[in-house]
Amino acid sequence: MDKQLFIKILNSGSEKLANRDMLVNACVENPLRNSILLKNIGSIEDEKSSYSARIFELACKENLEMINPYLDDFCDLLAKIKIHGTVRSCAKICELLMIEFFIKHNRKFHSSIRDQHLEKIIESGFNWMITNQKIAVQAYTMQTLYLLGKKYDWIHIELALILEKNIPTGSTGYKNRGRKVLKAIETNTDLKL
Fold it and tell me: pTM here?
């Protein structure tokens, strides 16, 4: 798919499954298309940013390594995004990155993810945990912050405080995930989801 057709389908407003699959495949086949998605995600007031974020998330699920050249841009966007769908997709990508980094110990991510990226993910993650976000964002972020706590001890302390405060009033999903994270923190074991 050439660049013009990619942009036309992306901006058409049609979120049909067939279009979504075409866009995801185009990104996987030509990772340069991700720069277009990141530019759209950066349009933080535009509702279309969440569709671009969803395409980016699905493409990352297919081939997460293609994010490596864009880590600076992606991490810079995290503190700016506001629209729920965009935040949700970005939170999922953060979770995928931390799984590769801390659980799978993928060397390609150890060489590309720097401390400044981790700091931006931590800052955004805690912001998402203390603001009014839907359960999907907070569930992904719990996992992300838990994994980051393996490198930065203080994260587990702060995350536990937030969870203990919010579990009593949280949704069923929040309570279930939160209790699992708390148990993993308290027992210093791997998080079983």
Answer: 0.95
